[in-house]
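As described in the Methods, two query proteins were run sequentially through the folding procedure within a single session, without resetting any intermediate state between them. The first query and its resulting structure tokens are shown here.
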Amino acid sequence: MRLQVIQDSKGKATGVYIPIKEWRELKKQYRDLETLEYEEPTKEQLLQELREAVNELKLVEQGKLKARPAQELLDEL
């Protein structure tokens, strides 16, 4: 496997580059690796999440839903 270590300006290792062909082979061998891949949300997904957030805020304002602590919201991000 031909890994490349990514370093910051001070020479500290900050990441690893794995060629895509080798990454695909690793994913075949270790199925759980697929869960690590990040897929960019679509515009529709983002809009839907915003709609849901606005609806939740309205329910909180109306007293129909209890507000959550700010830290809990930040932890979701």
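Immediately afterward, the second query was submitted; its sequence and tokens are:
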Amino acid sequence: MIGMGMTLSADDFLEVLKKPKVVGFGVACQFICMPLAALASSRIFKLPPALALGLILVGTCPGGTASNLVTLISNASVPLSVLMTSTSTILATILTPTLTKLLTTSSINVDGFQLFKSTASVVLLPITLGMVLNKYLPRLSKTISSYTPFTSVILVSLICGSVVASNSSILLTSGLPVILSVLTLHSLGFFLGYFFPSLQGYSKKTCRTISIETGMQNSALAVVLAGSLGVEGAMVPGAVSATVHSCIGSALGGIWRWRDQRKKE
């Protein structure tokens, strides 16, 4: 999150004001389609309450930085992707705990205030710190930012790997429903994220961007937030999600890029 903040400035958020409609539409897709898809998937595959909570957390989290790379691969709009990622991440401070509390079954006690504090500490504070560093130490920030994407990949892999290892018994007993529910969640996100913008007449590049931003969530954030609630097993869907959405997004981006090249030929 500090790395993301070091690539942002106040001017980036002013850009949102220049494109309020498309950014707002895209962020709405993220925070409406994905939470509802998570709720539906958890019920279709009859996930236990703890796993359902983890899946809903994935659905209510903002877009991740991996979406920006997949957007580049897909010949979509990288500037729009960055705007949506940064906007949804800031809004997640309020929306993630609120939506999670609203959608979670009553058999699981979700401490909304604790979730808000965790989201603020994991999202808002480090991004603000990164932006301050970018403003006052721009040369240092630019140097560090060239290494943060790779570092983030390593850190996410370690986080998710440790979750899978420590919850292997849950995966052995409920692994298939978890994988299928996560796969359904992200597939619906990619599909609906393309379908609804296309109905509004947005360009192909814009539809691809919103599709990627909707389908690819910040799964590592979902894992950390689930851990802060202390509900055993709630971190598992986030760990599985990190692999699933990256695979779907990369495959989809490759197909779109291949189709564009075929048309040029």
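The CA atoms of residues 230 and 239 lie 16 Å apart. We note this only descriptively and draw no conclusion about the first query from it.
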